[in-house]
Design goal:
Length: 325
Amino acid sequence: MNSTNVTIVVPCYNEEEILHKTFSDLSNLLTSMIDDGLVSPKSKILFVDDGSKDQTWKLIYKETLKNGMIKGIKLSRNVGHQNALLAGIHIATESSDAIITIDADLQDDIYVMREFIENYQLGYDVIYGVREKRDSDTFFKRFTAESFYKLMNKMGVELIYNHADYRLLSKRAAEYLQGFEEVNMFLRGIIPLLGFQSTKVFYERKERTAGESKYPLRKMLSFAFNGITSFSVTPIRLVLVGGLVSFFISLFFALYFLGLKFFGNTELGWTSLITSIWLIGGLQLIAIGLIGEYIGKIYKESKRRPKYIVDIDMFKLPIGRNFAL
Ligand code: UDP
Ligand code: MG
């Protein structure tokens, strides 16, 4: 049977504690899918080391020597989850019919990959893994995530609710993805823009069994902010509207105080003056800051720097060098 050649792409940043489990769980799953004839025996698991500071690359490298299903690439430095995913997808595209991306911590149910592939075979180009419940996440994480989705949707960006970066892309979807050249890649926002037939597969999200989340609050906020400013100019418009509103309110008060001066008690406080100065000053700073954010984005985009640099690609190994550094 002519079955699907799939590559499972796994971005890893300082994941030494969980990698053993990830290797064995994923290769067991892939073996069983190959045995069932669901996927081609040429299918692979590609680990992308995103410039880890721990033993991650060594572990990946050693595993590739033992296990023919496992491949690895090492990026020259840490470029972040999204760019690490892109690196893996781009490298896997050439040799695969379909690419599945999943986090190394196995918080996502790996067994629904079977459904991903069945849906791919039915003809879908994009299959989104969607978390049915987020019980394992803290209330805070759930709340911030929910607000983020709502805000993005309000601003006209189509995001799949409760879908992270666990998904299957067909070869052609992955190829077209390469045409999106922006530097600030936010895959969750870009992939719906491909417009291909897509479907969702639901699963329960588990807790991380080892290691720590690489998304502490600070990173999550910057991720969300990036997502918003990369896709929408609504914040700039809101600032404009805010500026206009505050301008007319100030105008009203100015007239009111002038009226008081000429027709009544002129005992006007210092407070009103100073608060309005601060208020307007603050508003101006916000506006300038936001505009600066967009200009910064334009600046970054205009440089067209590579999003990642592959240090070691185990698909194309030059002979006679040691790569376990
Ligand atoms: N990751 C990465 N580069 C980074 C940060 C994270 O490749 O700079 C990987 C990480 O190893 C994991 C995935 O991205 O496989 C998601 O990260 P994490 O589990 O920490 O995020 P969370 O699930 O808490 O949102
Ligand atoms: Mg995680």
